[in-house]
Write a structure and sequence with these properties.
Largest sheet: 8 strands, mixed
Shape: globular
Strand content: 15-25%
Structural class: alpha/beta
Strand order of the largest sheet: 9-10-17-16-15-11-12-13
Distance between the termini: 6 Å
Amino acid sequence: MRARTWLAAIITVIVAALPTAAGEAVADDAPLVETGPVFNDPTGDTTAQNAILTKLGRLVQGATAGSEIRMSIYLLNSQWLVGELVKAADRGVSVQVIGDSDSVSTAYATLQNALGTDTTADSWVLTCPANSACLSQDPNPQDAYTTVNHNKFFLFSETTGSASGGTAVRDVVVQSSSNLTAWDLNTAWNDAMVVTGNTTLYQAYADYFDDLRAAGSGEIPQVADYPVETQAGVAKLYLFPRATSDPILNILNTVDDPVGDNAVCHGNSAGFGTSDGRTVIRVAMHQITRVAVAKKLWELDNAGCYVDVVYRLLDESASGAVVAQLAAPTAYGGIALHKLDEDSDGTSTHSKYLLIEGTYKGVPDQKIVFTGSHTYTVRALQGNDEALLKYADATVHDAYRLNFWHQRAAADVVQ
């Protein structure tokens, strides 16, 4: 049995009419395009489940003639969204799609047949090489794991966010955790962060898209290390693969920077972190296999941070090193762990976000979100095409925090 629904609270971007099942019809009365997150709720009705897909569909519907839509996606199974993309191309929008070779579906084939595969044309579909990412080089070609284009981002150079028109907004970035499949809508918890009017961020994604296209077409070689990071105001983009450093570990290490004479994790004002001013770290993560990340989370909890984790999978083998590390006792009682998997809970977390509420880089009272396609796995670090988006904004953080609480409650419900 699934957990109860908190429909009104969890959906930050309100939509009026949403597609059915895999998304088949959308009303035209969309809100203006604004910066902020969108969350689906797999425990809810069709409207709640399809919130992310519908938002994307409306952005496609509102794309103006002569504008560009660029998207890089792991799995694309929505025939409805494909139909909207084809309509956009027909009305003079340049539609460019990079998909992984795993995205074998009727919908994907329809899009490929409609747009063609000539990447010198205005519109096209490019599929990464079989069993391979586009840009990322396989670090261990002899093992059983293949690399993938695991991205889930969407770029709109100009869109009204509605088929019925309205004020056009430029440089719209959507960074999501969600593939476009029925499972992602109906069973999994996902998020999509929409950022509008940030030209620096938009261009950083566009440059990355160009590199994905060039590598996927064989024009440039694949790379083992792509340590590209772009600061764009309150946003920051981190790209993968990484061969020599771990951005997640680097982010968590900055929480160690104390504030003045305070101990690590301490020194926040009332209303930030715990009631006694300790930093709170919340993680909603589909899978964690990197022991170094688990160890750092443990160290922060042991130092006084409150670490709260909702997860679907831990480790990748029977060794259980991540489980052992995260479950080990700390001076503050240990990390709070909540498994959210459809086999026991009816739904699964497919989110990939980290929330920091408290100290960061020696500054107290911070509220920061890190979200994207990037799981805390070795493959996501070293072998996949991935993107991670930082957004430092209290309103955005608090929306994600509410979503985290809802996922945690779904994980903890007694079946």
